[in-house]
Amino acid sequence: MKKLLIALVTLLPSLAIAAGGSNVHLESANVDFHDKESLERGLNLFQQYCSGCHSTQYQRYGRVAEDLDISVDDMRQKYMFTDAKIGELMENAIPPADAAKWFGAAAPDLTLVARVRGQDWVYSYLKGFYKDESRPFGVNNTVFPLVGMPHVLEDLQGIPVKQEDGTFVTTGGSMNAEEYDQAVRDITGFLAYSADPVKLEREALGWWVLGFLFIFFIVAYLLKKEYWKDVH
Fold first, then answer.
1. 10 neighbors 110 (Cβ within 8 angstroms)
2. How many CB atoms lie within 10 A of CB 111?
3. Is residue 19 over pLDDT 80?
4. Which of 45, 171, 177, 229 has its CA 20 to 30 A from that of 203?
5. 57: how many CB neighbours lie within 10 A of its CB?
6. 3-class secondary-structure state, position 160
7. Which residues, listed in sequence order, are joined to residue 112 by a DSSP beta bridge?
8. 149 C-beta neighbours (distance < 10 Å), count
9. What's the rounded Cα separation, in Å, for the pair 175 and 172?
């Protein structure tokens, strides 16, 4: 619980920044929690490109494997890059003190980022990097101005360059625009799942609860009529 509160406190200032930029257009992520193949691709991309600095320390390897129908062997071989055990939390290997020393601040945990900021924000943020030589890492972001991290997906997307008319021209990158959009959607989907892993179970249970309440209402209504028929 203490770690969870710390994560929320860490993310709330960022939420305020995002709220302040409400004039920024956010693209729809269209995340589908039923598409487990997309979620697994997102896990793969997150582990390759994001887990070096960021963690999802409120999620467990074993839980992810079970939810996404990944075998324990595949989880260990493909997605676990440390000596962690299958039941352990998906923590970052970099000590926070070292990360703060090297980068100026420790990279935030991303378990709850899709819940705090919203799926569309995460999706648009990952698509919002562009070249800006005035920044320490040579890039800026349309959704999060003055961003303090590099464009880690640059080898996939390339580097968008802002033109005088405000449009962007992307150079380099191993993916075309459509493929990159899907890759970003996959990562966003995994982060959205990590922020709310019981969403599908909760929604399924909700229908059962509504069904019970509907039947109970009918029974209660008929019982009320039976009790009050002599009064009327």
1. no
2. 24
3. no
4. 45
5. 17
6. strand
7. none
8. 17
9. 9
Q: Which two three-digit tokens encode residue 13?
A: 């200032």
What is residue 161's DSSP assignment? E
Which residue type, as a one-letter code, is found at position 190?
Answer: F
Task: Please check whether residue 137 is in contact with residue 151, taking contact to mean a CB–CB distance below 8 angstroms.
Answer: yes
- Environment class of residue 114 by beta-carbon count within 10 Å: exposed (0-12), middle (13-18) or buried (19+)? buried
Alpha helices, H only, the chain: 2-20, 36-45, 61-67, 72-74, 96-103, 113-116, 119-127, 154-157, 177-195, 199-228
154 within 8 A of 124, measured Cβ to Cβ: no
Would you state the pLDDT for residue 97?
A: 78
Q: What is the mean pLDDT of the chain?
A: 87
Q: How many other β-carbons are positioned within 10 Å of the β-carbon of residue 20? A: 9
Q: What is the pLDDT of residue 142?
A: 95
User: What dihedral do alpha carbons 144, 136, 168, 15 form, nearest 10°?
Assistant: 0
Amino acid present at 131 = K
Residue 73 and residue 94 in contact, taking contact as beta carbons nearer than 8 Å: no
Per-residue DSSP letter, 76: I
Q: What is the pLDDT of residue 232?
A: 58
Is pLDDT above 70 for 5? no
Whole-angstrom distance, CA of residue 108 vs CA of residue 13: 12
Name the residue among 14, 80, 36 with its Cα closest to residue 190: 36
pLDDT band at 231 (very low <50, low <70, confident <90, very high): confident
Q: Tokens 């000596």 — which residue?
A: 83
Residue 170: its H or E element = strand 168-171
Q: What is the pTM of this model?
A: 0.80
